[in-house]
Design a protein that fits this description.
- Keywords: Carboxypeptidase, Hydrolase, Protease.
- Its EC number is 3.4.16.4.
- One of its GO terms (molecular function) is serine-type D-Ala-D-Ala carboxypeptidase activity.
- It holds the Pfam family PBP5_C.
- It contains four helices and 13 strands.
- The chain is of the alpha+beta class.
- The protein folds into two domains: 102 residues, DD-peptidase/beta-lactamase superfamily (Beta-lactamase), CATH 3.40.710; 99 residues, D-Ala-D-Ala carboxypeptidase, C-terminal domain (Peptidoglycan synthesis regulatory factor (PBP3), Domain 2, Sandwich).
- A six-stranded mixed beta sheet has the order 10-12-13-8-7-11.
- Strand 3 and strand 4 form a beta hairpin.
- The termini are far apart.
């Protein structure tokens, strides 16, 4: 990005999300409609805070001669949160109207699909040379995706194991494969597939039996 130029809207959305997620105790101040200090009251310039059709609780407005009227607006509905970034508006009302359209569209036509929770078993894989011969595998993190409602039933999560076979010892949390999330057959995100429990190496007799089974 050139010095003096405006950051892309996507970058501003990422920054806004970071503020919301990392500063929950302070974030409420962005929804304050006015602030009085030393006898002077300053109104919040985010007019969407007064919109009764949306639950907008932030975040920032701005204006420069070169960039026009800009706004980063965030709204919630239940456990969902959307962030809209509008740049280059012709007026303060214009930027608010465009942000309102984006938020309304997102809340109306998009949904959030919960795929799996952190530590949830996605499968049970065979293990060789271990004290246990089965290994539950899954993700170390929760995963949800927002997408158009028409695409929700096309979202699938599948996994693949990195090695031809899993052999002990295996540590809890060790990456053993890859989770592939696809939308209508196209992979849109990948995550590490991890061992959900440890599998220590088995005793001599157990390992010998596994060796013989593999050779047969």
């Amino acid at each position: 990005m050139r010095r003096g130029s405006s950051p892309p809207p996507a970058i501003l959305a990422v920054i806004a999300r970071a503020i919301i997620m990392s500063e929950p105790a302070e974030y409420h101040m962005y929804s304050e409609k006015s602030l009085t200090w030393n006898g002077i009251t300053q109104q919040n310039r985010n007019g969407l805070l007064w919109d009764k059709t949306l639950h907008v609780d932030g975040l920032k407005t701005g204006h420069t001669a070169s960039a026009g009227f800009n706004i980063i607006a965030s709204a919630t509905e239940g456990d969902r949160r959307l962030i809209a970034v509008v740049m280059g508006g012709k007026s303060s009302k214009g930027r608010e109207e465009q942000a309102r359209k984006l938020l309304t569209w997102g809340l109306r036509d998009f949904t959030t699909v919960h795929l799996f929770s952190a530590g949830q078993s996605l499968g049970d894989e065979p293990v060789w040379y271990g004290e246990s011969h089965r290994l539950p595998v899954g993700s170390a993190q929760e995963q949800s995706l927002s997408l158009p409602k028409s695409e929700a039933d096309k979202l699938k999560a599948q996994y693949v194991i990195n090695a031809a076979r899993l052999e002990a010892p295996i540590n809890k949390g060790q990456t053993v494969g890859q989770i592939r999330i696809s939308d209508n057959g196209q992979v849109v995100k990948t995550l590490p597939l991890v061992a959900l429990q440890a599998v220590p190496q088995g005793g001599v007799f157990s390992r010998l039996m596994d060796y013989m089974k593999l050779k047969l």
